[in-house]
Amino acid sequence: MKNSTSNDAYDRILKAIISSELRPGDTVAEIQLAQKFGFGRTPVREAIMRLENEGFIVSLERKKKIYILFPKDIEEIFQIKQAIESMVASQASEKASPENKKELADMLAEMRLLKNGEESQRDAYVQRWLELDTQFHNLLFKIANNSRAGLIVNNLNLQFLRIKLGMLVLEERVEKSVREHLEIGEAIFEGRKEDAARLMYTHLETVKQTIIALMNTFYHDSL
Does residue 13 contact residue 37 with C-beta atoms inside 8 Å? Predict the structure, then answer.
């Protein structure tokens, strides 16, 4: 029960960080979070320790605060993402079975439908793309048979998506991102591992540079 409660506390506090319910720079304390979310102090303490180890909370001047991301952090996050996800794209190109290719082909077909579809309901359009984007990358980890890489990348994604600019960039780049993912997926489907790795690297580089440019201009207003 103790571990379950600790995990529940962790999930709830992490959700609050990702949604900006707990904002970057906010001071957090065991008592405050225990009262706010209805957990005991022990599971909250364990959750804070875990979040601190993962980089979401930092100790400053004997206080614990929600970590503020800066452009240097985005550079580091995306350097790791580029290294891992380019490798995974290459691995997926080599390892894809006929069943994997069928699943990938179905996903690419859905992406093409979205690309050519009606955008009048913008919120639904963006939300569907975000779902497909997640499914696409999860499929690549599955095909590459590299679940550990998936866990690392998912943690890195949470790090940068917790700033509002992270979501803004994804939403503004939907049309271009769909095209980029189609190119990556087609390279993997055809077994072109060098192209798949290069296209993945370039895609992530573009996302990184867009986020950093926005952070340099608007970051403090977006916190």
Answer: yes
